[in-house]
Design brief:
Number of helices: 10
Largest sheet: 8 strands, mixed
Distance between the termini: 38 Å
Strand order of the largest sheet: 3-2-1-4-5-6-7-8
Helix content: 40-55%
Order of helices and strands: EHEEEHEHEEHEHHHHHH
Shape: elongated
Strand content: 5-15%
Length: about 270
């Protein structure tokens, strides 16, 4: 596995997501001495990592350039990166909404460009990461898939437009689930259960149900029907979700809003 790591990795912005990715790779053998992080306030960098608070135009040409900044910062950062030799660099961007064409325009001298969209579960090695690139050679594709597979699972998209949907589904998705867990606890509390106990029951139920769903050959919809016997308690609850497709409609509207915002950020 050591051979798949970049010989030199320049990271611009090491917030929650990029920082978690680095920690995952360090745990699996990435040499801290191969990494330079540019961030005013980096998180938990191990000994050996070179840390800069601003981009130094004298930086050596990197093997990989990982962009972990906010999309709105690209216009500010790109001119600073123009002073660095990127002719041999694979640029890996996690900027929501910023398409390959925009990245290529901002960083015209980069050897190659790829986009990724991980999620918060990268911090525990359970992320699902979408990958997209145009004209990437087979070696780069294998390295990308292998490296992000170390942090959970990685899957290529055939159409770049799907990246907006991935952002709305798996990128933003943890927040949807966290909100649902919170709502379950609040509902139980409202019906008379102590708040701390309600939160524990909700969390344990979701954790066990997610594991069951991941192991089952049945779809989530089929599993729901297995739990809901006719005339029973579960059916009474599902009838509320199903009335006028209330749950499907609400989730669909929320995801559409996230996908729309992803497209706006790219503009």
């Amino acid at each position: 596995m050591l051979g798949v790591f970049p010989q030199s990795l320049l990271v611009i912005g090491s917030g929650n997501m990029a920082g978690a990715m680095l920690r995952g790779w360090f745990a699996q053998g990435l040499d801290p001495a191969a990494v330079t992080v540019v961030d005013p306030c980096p998180r938990d960098l191990p000994a050996g990592v070179r840390h800069l608070t601003a981009i130094d135009p004298g930086l050596s040409a990197p093997d990989w350039l990982l962009l972990g900044i906010k999309p709105q910062m690209l216009a500010e950062v790109a001119p600073q990166l123009a002073e660095i030799d990127l002719s041999h660099a694979l640029v890996v961007s996690m900027l929501a909404g910023v398409e390959c064409a925009g990245l290529r325009s901002a960083l015209p001298h980069a050897r190659a460009i790829a986009r990724i969209m991980p999620n918060m579960a990268v911090s525990i090695g359970q992320s699902v990461t979408a990958l997209y690139a145009e004209g990437l050679d087979e070696g780069d594709r294998i390295r990308l898939e292998t490296l992000f597979g170390m942090l959970g699972t990685a899957e290529w998209l055939a159409d770049e437009a799907q990246m907006h949907l991935v952002t709305a589904l798996s990128g933003s998705g943890p927040a949807y689930l966290f909100r649902f867990i919170d709502s379950l606890g609040k509902a139980a509390e409202g019906l008379g259960m102590p708040a701390d106990q309600a939160a524990r029951f909700a969390m344990a139920m979701v954790r066990g149900s997610a594991e069951l769903a991941s192991r089952s050959d049945e779809s989530p919809a089929e599993l729901a029907e297995r739990v809901a016997s006719p005339g029973g308690t579960t059916r009474a609850a599902l009838n509320i979700f199903d009335a006028d497709a209330a749950l499907d409609r609400l989730v669909g509207e929320a995801m559409a809003a996230a996908a729309k915002r992803s497209a706006e950020l790219g503009q």
